[in-house]
Design brief:
Layout: H1 3-20, E1 25-26, H2 39-52, E2 59-60, H3 61-69, E3 88-92, H4 95-105, E4 109-114, E5 117-122, E6 125-131, E7 143-146, H5 149-158, E8 166-168, E9 176-180, E10 186-190, H6 194-203
Parallel strand pairs: 3-6, 7-10
Antiparallel strand pairs: 1-2, 4-5, 5-6, 8-9, 9-10
Length: 213
Amino acid sequence: MNTAVKEKILSVCMKKIEQKGEGVQVSFYAFFANKNDDPKILMDVARWWIEEHELNHFEKATKIYAMVSALGTQSINQKSNINGFNHLTLSVSDLDRSCSFYCDLLGFKGEVRWRTGAYLSYANCWLCLSLGGPSPSQDYSHFAFTFDELSISMISQNIRSSEVKQWQKNSSEGDSLYLEDPDGHKLELHSGSLETRLESLRKTPYDGLMWLP
């Protein structure tokens, strides 16, 4: 929720509760002056009140206080606006070598290139290669790309006679190939999805696995 709006609603509710007790009721108009300076905010609150939660014209201030306190800091009328992953940027030490690895071996498409970087694409994946001092992760952190099983098999055959390093063997659901790019960034080519992984966990759960609400 917008922080200023949230604080205003909480303040008004608390003041009314202190003055008239826990049974006091409020309307969303109580949070705005007669001449509102920002009609958009008023409409946002009205949509949250009427459309999203289907509240009555008047509701107990204690109820509204509890609902607003539980909200995050996003705008009051917003549900999640997260539409997915946007792009990945990797620092590389040699643009020619990295472009060759991602385009010639993995099948990425080169889009544009400049002195210190390049944009590549693969299906809906946008990859930026940025010339600099790479510092690849030394832990299990890695980047996974969706590939079908045939593509994974072909790439696996192509790297057998190359110097491309495989950093681990696959031991989880779905076909996977674990590679390091020329700068040591850990990659995974994976044929599964979140849905197939969750289905596998229903059959064979991880140790201590809990399903989240």
